Amino acid sequence: MQESILTTRNLTKKYKNIAALSDINLELKQGEIYGLVGKNGAGKTTLLRVITGQTFATTGEISLFGTTSNGALNKERKRIGAIIETPSFYSYMTASQNLEYYRIQRGIPGKYCVDEALCEVGLSDVGNKKYKNFSLGMKQRLGLALALMNKPELLLLDEPINGLDPFGIVEIRNLLLKLSQEKNITILISSHILSELSNLVTYYGFINDGRMVKQLSNEELSSECTKYLELKVGNIEKMTALLETELGYTSYKIKPDNTIHIYEYLDQPAKISELAVRNGIDLNSINLKEMNLENYFIQLVGGTSNE
Amino acid sequence: MSSYLKSEFYRLIHYKWTYLFIGICSVLLLSSNIVLAVVRSTDSSFPYATTKFSFSNAYNNMPIVFILCIMLAIMIFGNEHNNHTMKNCVTYGIPRGTIYLGKFLVQIAYAIIAFMIIIGVHILSGYLLLENSGPKEFELLIRTSLACLPFFIFGLATTNAFVFILEGVGSAVSVSCGIMLAFPLICNLLGMRFQAFEKLGGFLPWNIMSSIEYNQAEHTLHMFWDTATGFRNCWVFGIIQTVLIVGIGYLLFRKKEIK
């Protein structure tokens, strides 16, 4: 059985009378990559800030590596690496000076870990460039280097690929996958680039208005995100009748946008088009479609996404 | 705590204002001695080119050093909230008490080093450039500096506390000035009518440091720290008020949200 790394029980955070988090329950098992999905202001960052001790929960409990008391939590936080909101460093110091400052502060032995961390995130050649002159992508990489410097067992990453170029995104994604696979590091990642999460995450938590709406594994999500054939024809009634009588299809839906979604025999689009042509029905298009993470999320939280 | 202190010193070493602050203050004091020496070289009857005049200028102006403590605390630590760097420490599980006291201790250490260098430059340049008036003024300067040291620490503690509690540097400076400068003056005014305020005002650093009186008849200065009791009281009042403000600051910072 996998060890539980992080658990929250009925975690609630209120600002005056407004609940930023309401009864959040989540559990991260060792080696998992947990994707926290939610609109802006849904409570993702607040949750990460409560976990890291930047702010305090109004009610509820956090368990980190099996401990729950406040003093012990602080000790266990030394096993965490985190980027919460934007990375923050001293503007007048270079990348290695900033990391050296935190290395000394954290009592991490051996100066080599600074170079190692910089190398790992692709910042080994920034030289004496001051942090204030860094691009957003470089700042993000330095934030990740700091998060990795203490060889964490749990990584908490709040929108870690913000500001990265496409190459940077792939690099960081591969790095996170490597860390998870080779070092069995547990990762909690929030991102608004949902397509990136789907390439990485093993477990999802959907958060909306401070509430955990749904949690499910990647496999469960895949089964919920079903594939279907989208059919656009001139005469919907005649076509559906033919699908039933001629081909024996029963699993289909007629959508408000005058399309037919067929959920079975997905490998037989030729048969359908032949049926339409043979019966004189105008066939405008026939496409294999799949509900992706984005559509699933929008459907789950309702309305349109503002990410 | 020791790791935290080491890291803060590492940061200070890489901060240009660490050097600029000491440099600017030293140059200002040095230039005052140079001006005196230059004037004497052009006018041999000029009576103020002496260490007595130069050093008395320094010990008569300790309230300025008190105000400089606000600047120093802001300079070393004021941008912590703007940089959002404190969250990196909290996230790693460094206790808030360590952060709060660590910054304060580093400020004290830096302030003492800076003060020693600046006043050292002033004394040395005084002896090198001006007429030596004897050891009395030098001793008075050292005694005044030592008596006012706990008040300077109180100044740092007050600014440090409000920089931690309030996020804006401007608000922290305003509140610190209010407590360190305006409150004693208000106490003095109210003290004219209410005895309790008069007594309270007598404990406050600003009032104590500003209480230097010149005795016309004897041509002597009277200072609060002239006597052993007065000197001891400077330390007792300074320490009590520092502990109070550090404690209040910590209690409020303990529950503060770090952004």
Summarize the main sheet of chain A: 6 strands, mixed
Q: Which sheet architecture does the biggest sheet of chain B show?
A: 2 strands, antiparallel
Strand segment tally of chain B? 2
Task: Count every helix of chain B, treating DSSP H or I runs of 4 or more residues as helices.
Answer: 12
Structure, explained:
The complex is a heterodimer of chains A (307) and B (259). Chain A has helices spanning 44-52, 70-76, 95-106, 112-120, 136-149, 166-183, 194-198, 218-224, 236-247, 269-278, 293-301; strands at residues 4-15, 18-29, 33-38, 59-64, 80-83, 154-158, 186-190, 203-208, 211-217, 227-233, 252-254, 260-262, 283-290. With 307 residues, chain A is α/β, with parallel strands linked by helices. In chain A, strands 5-6-7-3-8-9 form a six-stranded mixed beta sheet, with helices on both faces. A four-stranded antiparallel beta sheet of chain A has the order 11-12-10-13. Chain A is elongated, with a radius of gyration of 24 Å. The mean pLDDT of chain A is 84. Chain B has 259 residues and is mainly α. Chain B has one domain. Chain B is 79% helix and 2% strand. Chain B has twelve helices and two strands; from the N terminus they run αααααααααααββα. Chain B has helices at residues 2-13, 16-42, 51-60, 62-77, 80-83, 86-91, 96-129, 135-165, 169-191, 195-203, 205-209, 228-254, and strands at 213-215, 220-222. Chain B has a two-stranded antiparallel sheet with strand order 1-2. In chain B, a hairpin with a 4-residue loop joins β1 (213-215) and β2. The longest helix of chain B has 34 residues, at 96-129. The radius of gyration of chain B is 20 Å and the shape is globular. The two termini of chain B are 22 Å apart. Chain A binds chain B through residues 49, 52-56, 73-78, 80, 82, 84-86, 88-93, 97, 100-102, 104-107, 146, 150, and chain B through 3-4, 6-7, 10-11, 14-16, 83-85, 87-95, 255, 257-259.
